[in-house]
Design a protein that fits this description.
Blueprint (H helix, E strand, L loop, with lengths): L5 E2 L4 E2 L4 E4 L6 E4 L7 E2 L7 H8 L3 H11 L13 E2 H16 L7 E2 L2 E2 L8 E8 L4 E8 L2 H14 L3 E4 L6 E4 L14 H15 L1
Length: 204
C-alpha cells in the first residue's frame, strides 16, 4: 500500500482575531491586530477541510474559521488588504458540493477528466522517511486555502467513503481502515444513539 504524501505546512493567525469589513467595494476579512504580531497555528490534523466546507460557506462561518485557523491567503496577513470574502466562501461552497457528490463518478468533458477545484500552488519534493525506511512525496502548500484543497484531494482519492452524519451533518470517512463501516450513517456511536433516541421521542 502506497504511503500518503507528507504535508509540510505551517501557518499563523492574528491573536487579536479578525473582522468583516465593508470598507471599499468588496467585503474583506481583516485582521484586528497590526502586521507581524501573528502566532503560529497548530499543525493541521487533516480534518480542517471538512470544517471549512461545513462552516465557511457564509460570511459569518468564514469569520469563525479564520479566528480558529488564520487567514486563507497571504493577503489576509496584510491589515490593509485582507482576504476577499466572496472568493473564499465561493471555494468553500464548491468544496461542499463536491463532498456531497463524492460517492458518484466524475463526469468527463471531451474525453478528459473535468477539473472540479481551483488550481493550488503546492511545492513537491521527495524525502527520506526514516520511520518507514523509504522515500515519500512531501507536499508544501503555499497558503492555508491550498492546504485545504490538498487535504480534500487526498481524502477523496484514497478510496474512503466521505459521508455526512445523519445527526450533526459533519462529514466523516467510512470504509476499510477508516474506523467506520462503509455503510455507516453517523460520525460516531454517540450520534447514532442520540439520533435514534430523538426519532423515538418524536414518534411517541
Amino acid at each position: 500500500m502506497a504511503l500518503l504524501p507528507i504535508i509540510d505546512f505551517t501557518w499563523a493567525r492574528d491573536p487579536k482575531g479578525y473582522r468583516l469589513s465593508d470598507a471599499g467595494p468588496l467585503r474583506r476579512l481583516i485582521r484586528n491586530g497590526p502586521n507581524r504580531t501573528d502566532v503560529q497555528c497548530p499543525i493541521l490534523s487533516g480534518e480542517e477541510f471538512r470544517i471549512f466546507a461545513s462552516i465557511a460557506t457564509t460570511d459569518a462561518g468564514l469569520l469563525e474559521f479564520a479566528n480558529r485557523y488564520g487567514p486563507l491567503t497571504w493577503s489576509g496577513f496584510d491589515a490593509e488588504q485582507g482576504d476577499l470574502v466572496h472568493l473564499v466562501t465561493m471555494q468553500a461552497r464548491r468544496m461542499k458540493e463536491l463532498l456531497n457528490a463524492s460517492s458518484g463518478h466524475a463526469p468527463v468533458l471531451d474525453g478528459s477528466p473535468a477539473v472540479f477545484y481551483p488550481e493550488s500552488t503546492v511545492y513537491a519534493t521527495v524525502v527520506w522517511d526514516p520511520a518507514n525506511k523509504g522515500l515519500r512525496w512531501q507536499f508544501r502548500p503555499n497558503t492555508l486555502l491550498d492546504a485545504l484543497w490538498l487535504q480534500f484531494g487526498q481524502a477523496v482519492t484514497r478510496g474512503a467513503q466521505i459521508q455526512a452524519c445523519a445527526h450533526c451533518g459533519a462529514w466523516f470517512e467510512a470504509g476499510a481502515g477508516m474506523g467506520r463501516r462503509a455503510d455507516a450513517r453517523f460520525c460516531s456511536d454517540e450520534h447514532r444513539v442520540t439520533y435514534n433516541s430523538l426519532k423515538r421521542n418524536k414518534g411517541a
